[in-house]
Amino acid sequence: MMRLTRRDVSLCLLSIVVTAAALALGESRGKVLGQSAYDWNSIPAQNTPTGETRHFFRGPTPMLDQLEVHATTLNPGVGSHPPEKRAHEEVIIIDRGEVEAYVNGTWTKLGPGSVILNTPNQLQAIRNAGSGPATYHVISWISRGAPQQAGQ
Predict the structure, then answer these.
(1) Tens-digit pLDDT profile for residues 25-37
(2) 127 shares a domain with 84
């Protein structure tokens, strides 16, 4: 008959605690996003004070802590927010209308098909510079182990 030592019991308890912690961490990250397709017309538009937004998805992927895609439509003459810093990276693709993007300390006018790359901890903003609605798509991500800026 095998006799359990204090060391054996301690290792067993440690294994249980580590396994439970790993499972809890996995659950706290949420469901991992998988391959999908999203039809524009199936995503409900939510009215905002500046226009509307459509949230396609937001969550962890096999490679990223978080991946988010949404589309924003700004009414003429308004911005999404004043210049601010964010801890994550994002790509913005202009779909329709004219916008001005705050990049490297200056406002740059851009039209459909234009792309903006916002890098972490740099001031960034976007505003509608045209006479009609302006729509753009945002793809943002947080890499595993990426340092985060406090308060963001």
Answers:
(1) 444 457 999 999 9
(2) yes
